[in-house]
Design a protein that fits this description.
47% of the residues lie in helices and 0% in strands. It has 156 residues and is mostly helical. Helix 1 (2-10) runs antiparallel to helix 8 (131-141). The longest helix has 16 residues, at 47-62. The radius of gyration is 16 Å and the shape is globular. The chain starts with a helix and ends in a 15-residue tail after the last helix.
Length: 156
């Protein structure tokens, strides 16, 4: 409900939606509408996950690891707050724009095109200034169905 409302506000075309996947067994996956353009995984973060993320971040900064530049990626900057759902939606929709055939003037389509040469960090900072996207995120975050216990930003 929350992800679909947010997706609609930022330009996800009619006919595309987020659905819950209750299990990864083949018979359960048969219930998922087709085609599938992206998957967002929700799981509790553990100390090991935070440690792996920190190591990956250091490897990227040092040049030992590279990323595919044709992927749309936004770094969740501190001032954006606890917006992991927003960032997950931006990544899922932003990397499937060609499949979903987003309208040229859609909020996310415009942001992605305007920031095609920006770094993930720059995109994250500019997301703070993109009032329509930030407003859509804030509306989703304050929806009663979105309220969960927020984990610590830097992990356990």
């Amino acid at each position: 409900e929350v992800l679909n409302a947010f997706g609609s506000r930022i330009g996800l075309p009619e006919g595309w939606e987020f659905v819950d996947v209750v299990a990864l067994e083949e018979e359960c996956l048969e219930w998922v509408p087709r085609p599938v353009a992206a998957v967002i995984l929700l799981f509790p973060c553990t100390r090991r996950i935070y440690e792996a993320r920190r190591a990956q971040h250091q490897a990227l900064r040092s040049g030992r690891l590279s990323s595919r530049e044709d992927l749309f990626f936004v770094k969740q900057v501190e001032d954006f707050g606890n917006a992991c759902g927003t960032i997950a939606c931006l990544h899922a929709i932003g990397n499937c724009r060609h499949v979903a055939e987003m309208a040229e003037g859609a909020l996310l389509e415009t942001f992605v095109r305007e920031h095609s040469d920006a770094t993930p960090e720059e995109r994250g900072r500019d997301l703070l200034k993109a009032e329509a996207l930030k407003g859509s995120s804030d509306a989703a975050a304050t929806h009663p169905a979105a309220q969960t216990a927020c984990p610590a930003r830097d992990g356990p």
